[in-house]
Amino acid sequence: MSVKLETHWVVGFTDGHGCFHVAINRHPKMKIGYQVLPEFAIVLHKDDIQMLHELKAFFGCGVVRPVQGDRLALRVRSRRHLMRRIIPFFAQHKLKTSKGIDFIRFRKVLHMMERREHLSPTGLETIRRIVEGPVRPERSEE
User: What is the pLDDT of residues 108-125, one digit of tens each?
Assistant: First the structure.
């Protein structure tokens, strides 16, 4: 059964289930010894596989794969798809939770990668600082 996803619903769903992640992995074959790997992902229980496929169709990119145990993920790792589909969508349709901060950091790193700054030690260190970022303060319980 196909469902037409609404933009505001996708934003809210991503606020709850999405992840903007940048990994920095040691990679001896790379010139500076590290590789920067950005990824947008939404992880759900295997019973919700159809929703992951609907989201894949909505964004027009990504792959649905097993993650761990009974969970599956829609993952977008292609820089081209991240820059042409994911970044413009969330730049136009703002996230409401702290995921918005994660998105801003993610977008900043991708723009640096487009300028090939991730290929220098200085750029890699800047990306590392962006990714680690300041720790979010705990919310006080009132």
Answer: 999 999 999 999 999 999
Sequence-distant (6+) residues with CB within 8 A of 68 are none
Distance from chain centroid for Cα 24? 14
- Report yes or no: 44 and 51 within 8 Å, Cβ to Cβ: yes
pLDDT digits (tens, 9 = 90+) for 34-86: 999 999 999 999 999 999 999 999 999 999 999 999 999 999 999 999 999 99
- Using DSSP, state whether 108 is helix, strand or coil: helix
Structural domains of the chain, with CATH: 7-132 (3.10.28.10)
Say if CB 105 and CB 131 are below 8 A apart: yes
**Amino acid letter at 27?**
H
Contacts of 138 (CB under 8 A, 6+ apart): none
Nearest 10 degrees: Cα torsion 2, 64, 22, 33: -150
